[in-house]
Each structure stands twice: as C-alpha cells, then as structure tokens.
C-alpha cells in the first residue's frame, strides 16, 4: 500500500501521462497525528500546535535527510526512510497517543501520510524523537 496521498498520486500521473511538469518540492515538514489521515490526505487528527509545545518539524528533501531502502517490502513496495534524526520540541502538556505521521510540502499540501510502526504516548515533559530509519514511507 502506498503512503502517497491522492494529491501526490495525481501529480505523478499528470507528469507521466499528460506531460505536465512535476511540482518541485523544496521543503518538507513532518507532522504528527493521533488519528491518521485517509488516502486523500484528509481527515485524521493532527496534534494541535500552540501552547502544548507541538510544532511540525522541518526535514527537507535530500540524501542528508532521506534514503531509499536497498530492498523492497514483502508486498513489493519501495521503502523511503529518514536518514537523520527527526526531533520535536518538548511537550508542555500531553499530546495523547501518536499513531501516524505525514509530510507537507512548502505549499502546505499534505503529500504523504503513514501509520507509525508503534504508537507512542506523549505526556508533558516528553520529547518525540525518531531515529534514522524509524519513519518509513512506502511507494508501490
């Protein structure tokens, strides 16, 4: 199953079959969700930003931040994962159970969403950190 949203899938199809330019992605921000958005990239519940300490984290495209796994998963999906640590600020108040994450580009378009391999409860004083390889996106 692909973690690309319908918006990204459409942009890829338009570039491949309609000759339209593929939009340049120059910036990624990583977002956390207590409820994972659907394939359209809508719905779900993002941790609210503000006084609780949550803010999406910038983690731009490029080989310093992202890598392609050398092998595919059992379903034949290509796996991309974070190559460097993604660290959020310290939670001032509880964020709840984090069940998924997503990437938004510089135009605030949500292009990838994925469940976490293991949900994480975030309490006041916790700091969410994803070590290299812990955030994975499947394309296939």
Which descriptors would you attach to this protein?
single chain; 39% strand; three-stranded antiparallel beta sheet; mainly beta; 1 helix; 140 residues; 10 strands
Principal-axis shape equals globular
The assembly state of the depicted protein chains is single chain
Q: What is the alpha-carbon Rg in Å?
A: 15 Å
Beta percentage is: 35-45%
Helix content: under 10%
How would a textbook summarize the main sheet? 5 strands, antiparallel
Q: Spell the H/E element sequence.
A: HEEEEEEEEEE
| Arithmetic mean of pLDDT | 94
Number of domains: 1
Give the number of DSSP strands: 10
Q: Which class of secondary structure composition applies to the elements?
A: mainly beta
Termini gap: 6 Å
**What is the tally of helical segments?**
1
Low-pLDDT regions: none
In summary, what is this structure?
The chain has 140 residues and is mostly beta strands. The chain has one helix spanning 6-17; strands spanning 29-35, 45-46, 57-58, 66-68, 78-82, 86-90, 96-104, 110-122, 127-130, 136-139.
Structure, described:
- It is a single chain.
- The protein is mainly beta and 140 residues long.
- It has one domain.
- The chain has 1 helix and 10 strands, in the order αββββββββββ.
- Strands 1, 2, 3, 7 and 8 form a 5-stranded antiparallel β-sheet that branches. The chain has a 3-stranded antiparallel β-sheet with strand order 4-5-10, with no helix packed on it.
- The radius of gyration is 15 Å and the shape is globular.
- The relative contact order is 0.27.
- The model has no long low-confidence stretch (mean pLDDT 94).
């Amino acid at each position: 199953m692909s973690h690309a949203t319908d918006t990204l899938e459409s942009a890829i199809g338009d570039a491949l079959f309609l000759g339209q330019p593929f939009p340049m992605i120059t910036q990624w921000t990583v977002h956390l969700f207590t409820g994972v958005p659907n394939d359209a990239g809508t719905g779900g519940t993002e941790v609210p930003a503000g006084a609780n300490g949550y803010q999406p984290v910038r983690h731009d495209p490029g080989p310093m931040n992202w890598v392609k796994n050398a092998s595919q998963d059992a379903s034949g999906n290509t796996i991309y994962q974070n190559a460097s640590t993604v660290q959020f600020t310290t939670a001032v108040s509880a964020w709840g159970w984090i069940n998924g994450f997503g990437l938004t580009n510089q135009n605030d378009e949500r292009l990838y969403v994925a469940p976490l391999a293991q949900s994480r409860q975030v309490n006041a004083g916790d700091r969410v950190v994803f070590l290299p390889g812990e955030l994975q996106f499947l394309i296939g």
